[in-house]
Amino acid sequence: MYERGMRIDKWLWFSRLSASRSEAQKLCESRRLRLDGRVIDRSCSTVRPGAVLSFPNGDHVIAVRVEALTERRGPSTEARMLYTPLLPAPTAHLARHPGFAELQPA
Question: Residues of the chain with pLDDT > 70: what percent?
Answer without folding.
Answer: 80
